[in-house]
């Protein structure tokens, strides 16, 4: 009677979910692992993305673990992803890529418990196995009037036996999913909607009037609060990260973590990593709730003078984004993203000495091998500061290029001449997208109706490639600076909209003539 009522109800009221309607045990298994400890409405997008990346058990088994963790990022409980990967390898090696149609064999796969084994067995293979999740536990305890603590193993076994007895001879998977859907939409925790329930006339708890008190559960222990300091340690536009070895968040990448001791030495936790760094800013609090503990975090920005360290590594923004990171680091990651995003800021008197030092280093690096050593040596920080002040006095805009609060170069623009006059990025900060961000900014503030100009040394191939890819793709003039040393520079043009219009008009006139 129970199964007949539930299957009829399911045919009319079953939920439409992205992972329903398939008999593929791989897809069912992936969805059931994702649904552990995660809300159904959250899983859909992750499930579809995961299957695009790993469409079958062979693709999953062959993938590096780091790729699996990255694709899992945001779902939490990362041991599920690691076990999923291990189980895929076992299915390929032991079963040739075919999932066993046997509850016991499925139960032996890493990360597969009684519930998941029963769900896969019943849905994929129509085996009579009750999938005892929270929904089935609640529905069956109310229906059969089980009023003992469902956390006690003997009570769990009794409920499982009742569920096994209730299984129909066919459509076992649909029956399990019907009970799941009833528990999710009608026989909900707290106060169930008994008038809408197809089982109301047969339900023990409904007749007794105590459905809202079932199932009986012992009070959960409160989570443990942990105070942590999260150190965002930057050096030349990169940030320090390490791969966790601890059981919690194992193999995931995190920033430097230490006990939060407000009265302690802020540099001491970093010294343990072999990093000499200075505190730059308190970036505020963050909080993450695990099942049994809460991380109460304070975020700090610390700057290291050298990338030398005993463990972990300094990574770029793009490298950081590619690493698998836990949801617990979400606030820290957002702060790190802001730190590592290049900034173009109009200079003032206070910032000029820092910019001049970066300018001197980057100028010498760009001209090394092109200019005489004595000439290079003359371009000290003091000399470059005078140059920048001269540019400002001439009415040009002098911008500082900054990353993680560190001066990374200079950008000089002449609005009257519509020219990008100078762009230099410190050699330690190259390859971070700073130059490209600076050129994009210059293009955005100059007059796009007129031709824009930039001058670049012919031997500076990196700069030439950057300007060409940014639209400065025509050479208007080549100047010889030193005939003896064959030092030349070229004036590159980015055509303005008016120029394009004149060219089109001329072409149209020529075609019409």
Structural summary, described in words:
With 513 residues, this protein is an alpha+beta fold. The protein folds into three domains: 2-213, Hypothetical protein, domain 2 (Endonuclease III, domain 1, Orthogonal Bundle); 224-339, Nucleoside Triphosphate Pyrophosphohydrolase; 343-499, 3-Layer(aba) Sandwich (Aminopeptidase). The protein is built from 21 helices and 14 strands. Helix 8 (114-125) crosses helix 11 (172-185). The protein is elongated, with a radius of gyration of 33 Å.
What can be said about this structure in brief?
The protein is of the alpha+beta class and 513 residues long. The protein is built from 21 helices and 14 strands. Strands 1, 2, 3, 4, 5, 6 and 7 form a seven-stranded mixed beta sheet that branches. The protein has a seven-stranded mixed beta sheet with strand order 8-9-10-11-12-14-13, with helices on both faces.
């Amino acid at each position: 009677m129970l199964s007949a009522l539930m299957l009829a109800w399911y045919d009319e009221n079953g939920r439409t979910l992205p992972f329903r309607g398939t008999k593929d045990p791989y897809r069912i298994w992936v969805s059931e692992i994702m649904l552990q400890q995660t809300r159904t409405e959250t899983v859909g997008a992750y499930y579809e993305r995961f299957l695009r990346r790993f469409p079958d058990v062979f693709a999953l088994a062959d993938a590096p673990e780091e790729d699996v963790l990255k694709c899992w990022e945001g779902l939490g409980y990362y041991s599920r992803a690691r076990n999923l990967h291990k189980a895929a390898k076992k299915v390929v090696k032991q079963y040739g890529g075919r999932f066993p149609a046997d509850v016991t064999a499925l139960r032996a796969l890493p990360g597969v418990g009684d519930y998941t084994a029963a769900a896969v067995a019943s849905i994929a293979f129509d085996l009579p196995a009750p999938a005892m999740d929270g929904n089935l536990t609640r529905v069956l305890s109310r229906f059969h009037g089980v009023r003992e603590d469902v956390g006690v193993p003997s009570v769990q076994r009794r409920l499982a036996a009742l569920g096994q007895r209730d299984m129909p001879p066919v459509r076992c998977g649909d029956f399990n999913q019907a009970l799941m859907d009833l528990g999710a939409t009608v026989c909900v925790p707290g106060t169930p909607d008994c008038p809408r329930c197809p089982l109301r006339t047969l339900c023990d708890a409904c007749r007794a009037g105590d459905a809202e008190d079932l199932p009986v559960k012992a009070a959960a222990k409160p989570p443990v609060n942990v105070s942590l300091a999260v150190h965002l340690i930057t050096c030349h536009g990169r940030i320090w990260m390490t791969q966790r070895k601890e059981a919690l968040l194992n193999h995931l990448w995190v920033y430097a973590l230490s006990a939060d001791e407000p009265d302690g030495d802020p540099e001491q936790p970093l010294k343990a990593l072999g990093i000499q760094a200075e505190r730059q800013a308190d970036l505020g609090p963050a909080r993450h709730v695990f099942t049994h503990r809460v991380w109460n975090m304070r975020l700090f920005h610390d700057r290291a003078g050298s990338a030398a360290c005993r463990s972990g590594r300094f990574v770029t923004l793009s490298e950081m984004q590619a690493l698998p990171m836990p949801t617990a680091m979400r606030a820290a990651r957002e702060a790190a993203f802001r730190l590592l995003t290049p900034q173009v800021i109009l200079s003032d008197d206070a910032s000029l000495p820092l910019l001049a030092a970066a300018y001197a280093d980057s100028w010498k690096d760009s001209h090394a091998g092109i200019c005489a050593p004595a000439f290079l040596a003359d371009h000290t920080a003091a000399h470059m500061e005078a140059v920048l002040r001269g540019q400002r006095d001439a009415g040009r805009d002098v911008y500082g290029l900054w990353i993680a609060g560190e001066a990374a170069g200079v950008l000089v623009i002449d609005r009257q001449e519509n020219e990008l006059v100078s762009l230099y990025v410190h050699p330690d900060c190259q390859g971070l997208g700073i130059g490209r961000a600076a050129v994009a900014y210059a293009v955005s503030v100059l007059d796009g109706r007129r031709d824009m100009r930039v001058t670049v040394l012919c031997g500076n191939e990196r700069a030439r490639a950057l300007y060409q890819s940014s639209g400065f793709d025509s050479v208007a003039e080549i100047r010889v600076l030193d005939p003896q040393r064959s030092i030349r520079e070229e004036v590159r043009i980015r055509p303005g909209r008016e120029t394009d219009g004149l060219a089109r008009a001329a072409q149209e006139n020529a075609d019409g003539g």
